């Protein structure tokens, strides 16, 4: 079997400690920056033949904030529209946890991914026996009198015993959740005083949306938010209910050509589909 050169992207545990791997095929340099308050530690990353950059540092432990910076010159129409800027702080596209600075900037946060699944596996219900309930995590239990008030509108509320009993009574075998990835409101909506309730403006595809976690989990940080999400999945699976996720890849929180540079676009514009002239293509 041929090894996938793009495997193990994001933060993993290597033989000598934590390793971060990110693809930035056209970059000439990528730095891993670690919050080492009151300063920052800059770790130059090394590139392999497939355009994957790697960096390691023992400081990459749960709770630590980190980000990336990329440098280079556009080398093809696909990334002419967004030149590299080594002064811009970028998100790791595979970050499992996110946090914000005092100035509101997003940062990756190292999380503790350990979790005891207790032998619970996904039910694997045959499609011809599947009954799907599409749900919004916040909206489904936000006003439910059958869920404790502090859990309403949360991952834990969706997995509460009364919620599961209701789903089972309906004969549901799978819940299809509207976007649960960390998302933000579009800039134009913010300017108009609105918000994106549905979540179709993804900031990070691998970090659970923090606002859907219980207050206690939010206060405890990204690791606790991830545990609450996994706990929801475990309880639903144990009840014979599959968890399906609604994922939309045709746009992100970086929005259109003139949108903010948050992560993907700053690492390599080829993360997005373009026509031969470098214009966005669907």
UniProtKB/TrEMBL annotation:
Residues 153-255 form the Glycosyl hydrolase family 13 catalytic domain. InterPro entries: GH, GH13_cat_dom, Glyco_hydro_13_N, Ig-like_fold, Ig_E-set. Pfam families: Alpha-amylase (PF00128), CBM_48 (PF02922). Residues 9-95 form the Glycoside hydrolase family 13 N-terminal domain. Belongs to the glycosyl hydrolase 13 family. This is Glycogen debranching enzyme GlgX. It comes from Frondihabitans sucicola. The lineage of its organism: Bacteria, Bacillati, Actinomycetota, Actinomycetes, Micrococcales.
